[in-house]
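Fig. S4 source data, part A: sequence.
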Amino acid sequence: MRRLLRAALAAALCGAITATALSAAADERAPAHAAATVPAADAEGPGHQIPAGQRTTDLGGTWRFTTDPAAGPGDWDAMPVPGNWDQHDAYAEHQGDAWYRRTFDTPPLHSGEVARLRFEAVNYTATVTLNGRELGTHTGGYTPFEFEVGDLLKRDGTPNTLTVRANNDYAVGATWPWGGISRPVTLTVDPAVRIERQHIVAEPDLDAGTAAVTTEVTVSNAGGTERTVRVDGALTDTRGRPLPAGVLRGRDVAVPAGGTRTVELAARLPRGSYGLWSTDDPRLYRATVALRQQGSPGYAVSDRFGIRRIDIVPDGLLLNGERVRTAGFNRVPGDRVHGATEPMSVVRAEIDRMKEAGATMTRIHHVPQSPDLLDYLDEAGMLNIGEISVWGKDASLDPGRWRPELREMVRRDANHASIVAWSVANEIAGNTEKGRHFVKSMIDYTREELDDSRPLTYVSNTFSDIEGPEDEALQYADFLSVNMYGGFTDRVRALREHFPDKPVFVSEFSADGYTFTPERESVEFASKSDGAIPAQLSALRWVIGVSRWTFDDYRSRYSGTSPNQLRGWGVQTDWGGLKRNYDQMRAAYAPVAGLDVAAADGGSEITVTPRAAGELPSHILRGYRLRWKALAADGSTVAQRSTPLPRISPGDEPLTRPVAWDGGGAAGEAVTEQVGLLDPQGYEVAVADRDLAAPAAPEVTQTVAAAGAVRAGFTHVAGADSYRVEAQAAAGGAVRSTLVHKDDHGDVTGLADGTAHRVRVVAVSGAGETASEWTEVTPRAGAGALPPDPQSLEPVAGGAVFQWRGVAADDAYELEVTDAAGEPVRSWTTRLRGFSRIEEQAAGTDIRVRVRSVRGGATSAWSEWTQVSTG
């Protein structure tokens, strides 16, 4: 089976690229027209670009919005596009129809040009109307669609009116159906003949060291007569430098009126001219193809790609000819600050955290992902299974219903190096006749019509409810993707008996259960057993890898969800904090079995223990290094070292490396030493530390007095492993305390009301402990219960989003906003769970926010203040 991939970041070019026969390895028999001058892609742009031939008008910005079809023109609200309506308090719970409207001017149009309205995504269905004419309806909330509109655009100088009716009734599983126009909207103007897309397949010959790169270029003609054009192109590296023998030699193609034609261009790269894409070293390249008329390049399309080989064998997965056993996380996109319109800063930060926790392969979510996220997976080096939004036993199993979404996903995403396979469904009734027919039909359609270069699968949770392999739709998959929430080894062994020639990928797993309490949403949450599950499956050599559900907590209204509308599956809170179970999974997923630092003569000694041969997870490590540093009590680095490591294969003997302290100064100042194992990209994929001296004293920053309880906020200090928040009656007596590992505050309960207490925080490490100064606070019966737990205050355009963690007993919440000097700005009551948006504030305004709960008419104590400058 061929292996197709597209890579992820724009080639750095600032002029035109000229690719010719650049080395002796190039084909000397190539005709003169083999030299291809193609327009340059934007070095800072996305993986897919149209560097020449298209004019684009961005239709983003502020649109008018309503959920009432009878609303008068003056009654529509303002709504940003792209964005989601349920980010905003007034529409936070709205599910159903909503209308967007805006006006725009007609751009200059020349004879033969074609104007199109393009939507990158609207969730979940979208009916589009232009100047009173309905253009059509698109179903599917994650893929692009467009309409030709040239005949409908106004030419009399008056503005055009564009209306979109969006509907988010369809929810994919237990995730939140963020409603609205979630990705960009543009008006594009193209010549009649354009390149619609290219499909790049890069096949390395691992023995010869060469690589065959082909691209199938689809050219369309919206004009009224047949047109003949020449298509050629060039391959470059990510800095825009042509690859030796990277000429995509030109071919003429006759494109019928109103039709399309596909032409294949090819190049063979010689040994030593390229690098393979891998999870540790994700090399990326760019293919730029152009239409040429009268010898000049016109319309051009540029895509990044990677060169790598994937082989599915009965007992595993080979990446570039080497056995790998992988680990990863699922990720549910969206949060209450950004909705599903996530900024790249958020996406990159979360993917980076996954990589530092050892993630190498995932089925990241059971919907098509944003191109920006896939670009970054390409760059970061993470294998991913692309999947459409077919979910659940009640899903429609009509292939005609889902083929358009599958086609749109594959056509858009097929050039991503990170996409290792396609999946056609998740957790459907795969052990029924309808389910089996659906999976076979969709897999056949993908292989025959869309992409025959990748393995194909579907994700099953019915695999245990069969008598034989003929009962389960997995029989049609190239490898077996399964979701499991218990009985891991026994169920996988039974599955192997049914399908002895197909390896298994555990696309979802967790044993944390379906009880979602507010405590599970805290950074203090630790899993009881998830960190041990990879080791349980390690002996089953046919298990390719595992992917934990999920990386992040996510908003939901599904049955059993917590009172904060969150499902706390994640190792990261909905507010971006890393839980204790992140550290558990990071250790379980590390590419080495152990990393330790111990005292030695004249300094320290670091020991790296490789994974056992075939252990889950494991792969050959190349280009890794150790980073050691010593930290003082104030967190500053007083000494550091870095040393490269040789190639490490699973099954190798442990390695040791000495660290010399170079005198007593640093040793005398340091409270802790830390060691990190860094991969070739700089991700710290394993950590170890050794406590040398007691940490510095933390500082109590705020206190809250409640009925029979107090809350103390405090600063974290270098070298502390945990913190003990202590409270004692000022006159003396028993000390009550609570232990905190990651949070920045602690609550102490069971205190006598009306009695003055003193509170302090003790920083604890293996080398000792240090306490803060005592702070006096008096619990009061009339103060109310402990308040909600503030989690974040994030600036957004014109304001900020305040988020907190409440409990089931809360009926409503009162919020107070002041300026930095304490002058009131606004106060209000909301029944929204866990968040509220503060709007209509001038940019750069310093505000403070606090919250208290309302329960049965009584209020809690006020929370501590949180401060931010508005966006």
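Fig. S4 source data, part B ends here. The chain has six domains: 17-50+199-305, 56-190, 310-589, 592-690, 700-783, 789-869.
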